[in-house]
Automatic annotation (TrEMBL):
Belongs to the glycosyl hydrolase 10 (cellulase F) family. The active site is at residue 265. This is Beta-xylanase. Gene3D superfamilies: 2.60.40.290, Glycosidases (3.20.20.80). Residues 356-456 form the CBM2 domain. It holds the Pfam family Glyco_hydro_10. Keywords: Carbohydrate metabolism, Glycosidase, Hydrolase, Polysaccharide degradation, Signal, Xylan degradation. Residues 1-22 form the signal peptide. PROSITE patterns: CBM2, GH10_1, GH10_2, TAT. GO terms for molecular function: endo-1,4-beta-xylanase activity; polysaccharide binding. InterPro entries: CBD2 (IPR001919), CBM2/CBM3_carb-bd_dom_sf (IPR008965), CBM2_carb-bd_dom_sf (IPR012291), GH (IPR017853), GH10 (IPR044846), GH10_AS (IPR031158), GH10_dom (IPR001000), TAT_signal (IPR006311).
Length: 456
């Protein structure tokens, strides 16, 4: 986030003073009080995590704190697009796997960050647009989520897609220019690839009720109403010297939409209020039953991206700061709520009340291809006929020597010759004339004939 954007929080310092209480009053009976952040968060069924860097795992002070204090980890950079797919179709997971394995060795949750973000796109993707970029983006989501399938607690599927300022609109980017449905397409592909992971939208400057957070709120509400699979919203919470007075109310309004909320990148500028602001954020999460955990964006001040602002819980030498104590005390004081069950609840499609899909409706399919020497991505559009459809299959013929290597938003029978694709749970039901898409990547050359579609 640009520094200018963060500075607006300075204006909120006085508001913060009204919503915090002294950390020293928050300690409860020492018999129950846990002595680390992770253990104290676990008392209410939550996690307390840190963003970590693979390059620092050889630092004994760093890993000592990490192993002792945290029960969740997020890769600061290692699972981003530029790190995992530095050239198109060549995936590198070495550093991402180091973070994953560190998390596994700690028995910690691993938050995946981030499948798609307009920043840290690899150079090859930065220069792409349109269908080629859409296909590359879908393939990226599918490949990375598949590599980490079953191991990620929650994925930031899309990061920072909304504009700052008062518009509440999407941010312009080459991803956005592929079509406004790029976010829901990404969520659907992520769900198909890793049904067990919670799927989150993540953003900054969303720490109170404002135009940007309301734009995101409206998107989440729309997704929930249409059965687009979304489970959680991340509030980065890169804070200055204040916190909006409606911080907790903002978390609650999202939770009331039926998604979990998580504090995903917390750091707070060092200043008179740092410890109190950290405590306020912690208490706000504890007070919202669907707030499942808090992640700080780094361990020691010297590990932070905010050079010179000393925004974290440990000083450069690894000593606990006052902010650490205030968070621990707030966690040990407990909250009024426990988080709801943590398994993701794949959003079932919500068929409209007025259309009840009948068996036997017809459908049609068309294919668009993005090909290169030796490979291709096929995007298949499935369109229901004049009656609603409750399940569909699409069959096509691949040229000799071609093979399917991965599929999203459908399951395939066979990989060569005649291949049949069947709908997945969320895209089988189509209203009369309704449309859905799935895709697959293959080696060789793509199908040339129009695919056959049959409805259940
Ligand atoms: O690893 C290279 C190194 O080899 C090279 O010599 C050096 C030269 O600049 O760059 C190093 O990479 C840097 C990388 O951090 C690792 O330190 C990149 O330049 C730098 O751009 C990158 O910054 C990261 C930033 O995202 C990128 O926008 C920060 O570490 C990371 O904390 C920050 O995290 C973001 C979240 O993902 C999303 N929300 C905002 C947050 C803060 O900006």
């Amino acid at each position: 986030m640009p520094l200018l954007k963060r500075n607006r929080f300075l204006l909120l310092a006085s508001a913060a003073a009204g919503v915090v209480v002294a950390a020293s009053v928050a300690v409860i009976g020492t018999a129950e009080a846990a002595s680390t952040l992770g253990a104290s968060a676990a008392q209410s069924g939550r996690y307390f995590g840190a963003a970590i860097a693979a390059g620092r795992l050889g630092d004994a002070t760093y890993t000592g704190i990490l192993n002792r204090e945290f029960n969740s980890v997020t890769p600061e950079n290692e699972m981003k697009w530029d790190a995992t797919e530095p050239s198109q179709g060549r995936f590198t997971y070495t550093n991402g796997d180091r973070i994953l394995n560190q998390g596994i060795s700690m028995g910690a949750k691993v938050r995946g960050h981030a499948l798609l973000w307009y920043q840290q796109e690899p150079g090859w993707a930065q220069s792409m647009s349109g269908t080629a970029l859409r296909n590359a983006m879908m393939n990226h989501v599918t490949q990375v989520a598949t590599h980490y399938k079953g191991k990620i607690y929650a994925w930031d599927v899309v990061n920072e897609a909304f504009a700052d300022g008062g518009s509440g609109a999407r941010r312009d980017s080459n991803l956005q220019r592929t079509g406004n449905d790029w976010i829901e397409a990404a969520f659907r592909a992520a769900r198909a690839a890793d049904p067990a992971a919670k799927l989150c939208y993540n953003d900054y400057n969303t720490d109170g009720v404002n135009a940007k957070s309301t734009g995101i709120y409206n998107m989440v509400r729309d997704f929930k109403s249409r059965g687009v699979p979304i489970d959680c919203v991340g509030f980065q919470s890169h804070l200055g010297t204040g916190i909006p007075g409606d911080y907790q109310a903002n978390l609650q309004r999202f939770a009331d939409l039926g998604v979990d909320v998580q504090i995903t990148e917390l750091d707070v500028a060092q200043g008179g209020n740092q410890a109190n602001i950290y405590a306020s954020v912690t208490r706000a999460c504890l007070a919202v039953s669907r707030c499942t955990g808090i992640t700080v964006w780094g361990i020691r001040d010297s590990d932070s991206w905010r050079t010179g602002e000393n925004p974290l819980l440990f000083d450069n030498s690894g000593n606990k700061k006052a902010a650490y104590t205030s968070v621990l005390n707030a966690l040990n004081a407990g909250g009024t709520t426990s988080p709801s069950p943590s398994s993701p609840s794949p959003s079932a499609p919500s068929p409209s009340a007025s259309t009840s899909p009948q068996p036997g409706g017809a459908c049609s399919a068309s294919v668009s291809l993005n090909s290169w020497n030796g490979g291709f991505v096929a995007t298949i559009k499935v369109t229901a006929g004049s009656a609603p459809v409750n399940g569909w299959t699409v069959s096509l013929s691949l040229p000799s020597g071609s093979a399917v290597t991965s599929t999203w938003s459908a399951t395939n029978s066979g990989t060569t010759g005649n291949v049949t694709f069947r709908n997945v749970s969320y895209n089988g039901q189509l209203a009369a004339g309704g449309v859905t898409e799935f895709g697959f990547q293959g080696t060789g050359t793509g199908p040339t004939a129009t695919p056959a579609c049959s409805a259940a």
